[in-house]
Structure formats: structure tokens, C-alpha cells
Amino acid sequence: MSDKDLRIRSIVISEGENRSPNRAMLRAVGFTDEDFKKPMIGIASTWSQVTPCNMHIDKLAVAAKDGARDGGGAPLIFNTITVSDGIAMGHEGMRFSLPSREVIADSIETVMGAERFDGIVAIGGCDKNMPGCMIAIGRMNLPAVFVYGGTIQPGKLDDKDIDIVSAFEAVGQFNKGQIDGERLHDIECKACPGPGSCGGMYTANTMAAAIEAMGMSIPGNSSNPAIAKIKLAECEAAGKAVVNLLRKEIYPRDIMTKRAFENAITLTMALGGSTNSFLHLIAIAHSVGVDLTLDDFERIRGKVPHIADLKPSGKYVMQDLSNVGGVPGVMKLLLKHGLLHGDCMTITGKTLAENLLDFPPLSEDQKIITPLTNPLKPTGPLYVLKGNLAPEGSVCKMSGLQIKKMTGPARVFNSEEEATEALLQDKINAGDVIVIRYVGPKGGPGMPEMLSISAIVIGKDLGGKVSLITDGRFSGGTHGFVVGHISPEAQVGGPIALLEEGDLITIDSETQELSVNVSEEELEARRKKWTAPPLRYTRGVLGKYAKQVTSASRGAVTDDF
Fold this sequence. Notes:
Structural class: alpha/beta
Cofactor: Mg(2+); [2Fe-2S] cluster
Protein name: Dihydroxy-acid dehydratase
EC number: 4.2.1.9
Number of strands: 14
Number of domains: 2
Keywords: 2Fe-2S, Amino-acid biosynthesis, Branched-chain amino acid biosynthesis, Iron, Iron-sulfur, Lyase, Magnesium, Metal-binding
Oligomer: single chain
Largest sheet: 8 strands, mixed
Distance between the termini: 43 Å
């Protein structure tokens, strides 16, 4: 151990006769005299049996603890919650998903603050605990490393890859009579074969890649599968790295700069990631005091081609990308073409460009990542749309879509359940624009994802024939002509609250417009008649969340007062 005292906070416990009772508690969990001379490292584990994404993280946390101890720290594991978006999807439970991000961030910050840890390794798996960990890291600004638990293997049915989205789309196919109950059951049983996060370029893999691009995880961590033996080695390396960060006095806000967020957005656009990245990256940026807006996403989108043929709109999954060079291979390609800031600092103590020197380029014969000279799309697929329906903005994902514009009559629903029932009863016709409102951050509350209904649209062969707009959000597994995050939301009187059945709505990705063919005078007349419905929840987690949360355009954070 170096001569430098690395106990930047824990020294208040480790030294002095008046802290003898504090140390007595730690001796009960295994601390010795020697441990009190070392920096205390928190290992924030999101282990849980409620989802395959996190079912293996207990072992990863132990490996991180071993690494931190080997690196000269005194580590302790603590846990925080996770919820499964896949299990919560399509019913009341989804209202708790996005709020769980804040609960996770708050709980990690709380433990770290109370215990006076000097640094942290945070290990995440499912969609919300990843940004939750990063928000906590940003708020605390203590030396930190994030570790991703890894992607799931694809399921197999008839020698073809399937995944959780296959199961959601099978519901629509069953409803239409294209498959029978036995086939639906087969898909259900084989879609998720073991540990790891949903396999396509969905929200978990998107955020893992973005965090690696920001320099906050071990290089290569984001694309290595959950079952890969290297995962344990990554966790050990993360434990050692956080102590090294203490020695070098490198803090998260030294790494998570505006340029680092631009790298994250660049990689997200190139890979065709989830629209949830808008919410989460803006929220993480807020935690470190970086001014990141929807306009930044749009500025970068115009410069970065979409080059990854990954699910949900493409053919391949993250494990396939891992096999041909992974996220580091993609970043080497982007750096070579001047699309990344290679001089950004990372948790290794080296720059992004220096880290990438250790990795080979993508395999020459691979088909997952196209050349930048022949991309799937010349610009990024994640669009910001504005107009008289979304003055503050909305987001959509246009990868894999031939249709770029649609004008159709509004079919207005005040809940996902009502819209789903209409769809399953064949009351939605080609050309309709399904509107689901009062499901934003406050109105939901919790801004529930619409994977269930959007997957049924695909399963009923209505993809590209109808569109769906909402002040809620979409899963990273969603594909089709869908627009979410409409701001301001209906609950606070946003224009989406003023829509009436049959209003003509235009969605145009070329002009980046989301509008309704109703005059301002008529909208104002409707506004005068409109009154806000009561909040669905007034107490408990969702009641507190609804009262505090900001709009989606500001990351749906709860500490922006």
C-alpha cells in the first residue's frame, strides 16, 4: 500500500478512541486492525432471484470484493433492489419500473453516505438498476467503477434464435390465429434460457454500452455474456481499479464530462440502441451537473451512421457481437473515423483511445457491423420529434422501418389496458394512430413501457400499418412506428391531453414533426375546458414519485427542485 492515506471518508470511523463502538460493529463482520488502515470500499450488488438479469450477480459481487481486497481496500458487500421489466410489463406493475431507478440510486447513496465508504463498485443487470447505480455514483462523486452483469444467451426454437420479445410478439400471433397455444407455450418455455439481460440492443445492453463508452466500466465489459468466465475476472479488476482510482484521485466527475456523454450517445446511435437511453443519460448527466438535452442527441444523430444489425429491428444479439469483437471493436471503428473523443479519461486511469489499443478490430468476415461507408442508415435511428403535440420533444426509433411518415386519425385511450383491449378485439384499423395518454412520469405514474401492446401490433401484422404515440415510453425491445416520451405529458396539461377521437395526427421523421391538424384557437378552447384528473396514487412510493418527478425531456428525475 502506498504512503498516501486513501481513507477519504472512512477515517472518521477508523481513527480515534471515541469511534471504538463504530469499529466494534465492523469487527463483528470480519474487520481487523489492519483493515481499519485501508480505504473502505462498498460493493453495491443488485443480486436478486426476481429476474434472470440479476440472478448471478451474487457471485460477481464476491469477485469484486476479492479484487478490492487484493488491491488494498477493505471491501463490504451491500444490496439494493431490482425489478424485472419483463415481468412487470403490460400491467399495473410497470408503473413501478422507472421509479425503481430512483429508489436504487437513493438506496446506494444512503448506504454509502451512512457507512462513509471511500469508493464503490456497483454491479447492475436489468434496465433500471444500471442507470440507478450510475445516478448514485454521479451524486456521490466517489471513486467508482460500474460492472454490467452481462447479456443472456439467445433461446432456441427450431434451430432459430428467440428471446423475450419473441414471447411478447407471439401473443399477437396467437390472438390472430397464426400460432396455437402449444406453440405459444413452447416459445414461453425457451425464450429465456438462463442468466443475463435481454439479448438484443434493448435497454440493458444499450446502457451497458453507453456506460463503457463513457469510460465508467472495465473495457470490454458491456458485450461479454453473463455466463462468460471473464465476468468474474472483470469484477476482480473492477475491485482493484476503484482502489487505484483513489490513489490517482480520479473521480466520476473527472470522467463523466460532456464529451464522455457525447461518446455514449455516439455509440448508442451507431448500435441503434433503446429510446430509454434519452431518459437515462439525461438523468445521469443531471447527477454530475452536466447540461445534456434532447438537442444534444439530435445534434449527434445527424453525424453518426447506424451500423449495427441488432435486434429488435435487426438479426443479431449482443452475444453475436461479442463473438466478433464486441463493443471495443465498434468503438475502435468509430474512433478511427473521428466519431469519438479518444482523449476522454476512463476508470483505468488511461484515455479511451489508450484502452482501445489493447483490443483487436472487428473480425473481417463478420456481418453484424456494417462499414461506415455502407451503413444501414446514414444517420442515427433515434429521432427527436417536436411540434404542436410535443413542444418539449418526443422520441422515436426508426431503425428497420421503411415508412418515414404517417398521417391518420387519432384513436384515443387513457390507459394501455383500454388500447390493448381494442387492439385484441380488432377495433384498430390500418392507418389509425393509437394514442395512449395519462401514462407519463406523473400521470402513469412511472411512465410505463408499452412493449406489450407494441409487440401485439407486430404480432397481428399491423407493424408499419398503424402507429402508436404516448407520453409513456417504450421498451428497448419495441420496434415499429411508435413515438414516446411526449412532453409535456397529459397529466400536466400537455397538448396530448387535448386530443379527441378522429383528430388527424402527423408523424414525420424527415421533418421531425409530431403534430395534430387542429388550429391553435381550437386547442386553446379545449384547454380551457380541460381539468387535470386526480393522481392515480397519492401516497407511498408512487405518490411521492408523482409529486416530485420532472418531465421526460429532463430525464424524469426526482431531485431537480
